[in-house]
Design goal:
Blueprint lengths: L1 H7 L2 H4 L2 E3 L5 E3 L4 E17 L2 E24 L3 E11 L5 H31 L20 E3 L12 H11 L6 E17 L4 E18 L5 E10 L8 H16 L10 E7 L1 H11 L34 E5 L22 E5 L2 E2 L6 H6 L14 E2 L7 E2 L3 E6 L5 H14 L5 E13 L5 E12 L5 E4 L2 E5 L1 H6 L1 E4 L4 E9 L2 E9 L2 E9 L14
Parallel strand pairs: 6-8, 10-17, 16-23
Antiparallel strand pairs: 1-2, 3-4, 3-7, 4-5, 7-8, 8-9, 10-24, 11-12, 11-16, 12-13, 14-15, 17-18, 18-19, 18-20, 20-24, 21-24, 22-23
Helix pairs in contact: 4-5
Amino acid sequence: MGRLEWQLGQASLMNTTHTRPDRVDVSYMPYFVGSTIKEMRTWGIELFNGGLLTHDDNWTLPRYALRTEIRMGDYDEGGGVSYCRDQLARRRNGHSWERDLRSALETSYYDCVEDFERRNVHALSRRGSRRKERYTFFSHEQQIMHQDQETLLDPAQVPVDELETVTEQLHTGKVYSVMLSLQVSQENRYLANTEGTRAFTSSNVWTLSLLIGMPDDDGFLHTDFVSYHGRNLEDVPSPQRLRRDGLKLIRNLASLANAPWHVSNAQYALMDHHTTGTLFHEAFMHAVEANRLSEGAWGEQSNIFFGRMGSRVMPEGISIIDDPTRLDLIGGYTLDEDGVAGKRVQLVTDGMLTEYLHSRQTANHLRHRTATQGRSNGHARAESSSPPIPRQSNLRVSASNGLTRQCLLEELLRRVEGDGQDYGLLLENARAGQVDVEEEGLHMVWPSRAYRIYPDGRKEPVKGAYLAGTPHMTLQSIIAMGHAAKTHGAFCGAESGWVPITVSAPAAIAKAEIARMSTSEFVELPPPLW
């Protein structure tokens, strides 16, 4: 990275001054320049109904992504920012890489000049406290020298033939489709900036999912899934375990053959750990990613939890932690994309909001509205060369007054009878979630399985149920939580791409809006010809 520093010192490029008619001098000398190169190895297979559908192999010849970042103005007074993204030659070539780095820096520089000028124009047109909202800010952080120990995986050890056999064995009877996907990735990251930080980090992640589809008696295709995640290929589940888990999915799907469709209503629902965790991920965690609260100058500002520090945002007894220091979980990391050490953050204590998730930019922008006192808590994340924003890592939800599973079920039925409802709902194995943070946090969580639970204990599967709501209504509607949490892994998508996360949560009861999906959302299969 010596060439990078050399280029930054070129007075002909960086040390220019422009005098505005209003006598405001603006220096075009960047106060921060950073560069990140990622070496990305990927390997993956998709198996469908007993055959190999796709095979992606970028392991021996990795891909390289470059991101440069330049900031002008001042850390505390504000300024402009620009990023440049590029792909580098897949075979390491010093001349080619140097040329691409020079080009990326030039592009970043001139884009940053434009951004800084534009923000100045907007800021000067304002008066009072809103003036500085037009700028970007950047926290002061310590120089870091860090080097991970690289651990290479060997995808050749994956028993592809045995996994093919599993999908063939499960494709039987009324089963329409069996999809098994295994994706393995390694990311080596080289990070340097003009503050003196130099870092090399290395991480491995694999994810395996088994998705089975089966039609009901009306020809609508329903799916259920199981997924697994880890860092070492030795932990990939055996073909025998996959077959057992697949048979459970088939039994669950078979129970939907002539099940009734859900009727939309506000109902008491007992959510398993997977559904509860997904609900907190969508309804709460995305709204406390601090960039949602600080982009009022150039986008839609979210006011869901803006100005709520120290106030109650959910029932007493609930606490929430996001902890990237858990390196045994796939959401863990040593340094974030800003080169800041990932920190364990207590977001909620006994129902009270105590912090947001921060990058260096949001930490200084909100320095008077956050507990970090202008310092990042190491949550800037991004896929490949995308510009980083604050993101989740390893979420843990806990309740100080948690109940056993049996007590939760009894509480559900007591509430149902007390309100004169015919039944409550059991929601299991959330397959997806979605939130629109700018639109007051409207969120949806789709469970793979839903059941009516009657006062006599009878359990009846239903089709098409999903949970919808807004954060304050949903979170305040939580009535009780379990005492035992379970952890599941996933990939979260947002503006900075897809990043691995884990969610640990107990089961919970809430009275919420449980809507019904339209049948148009389901694939309708034609009757079989033979």
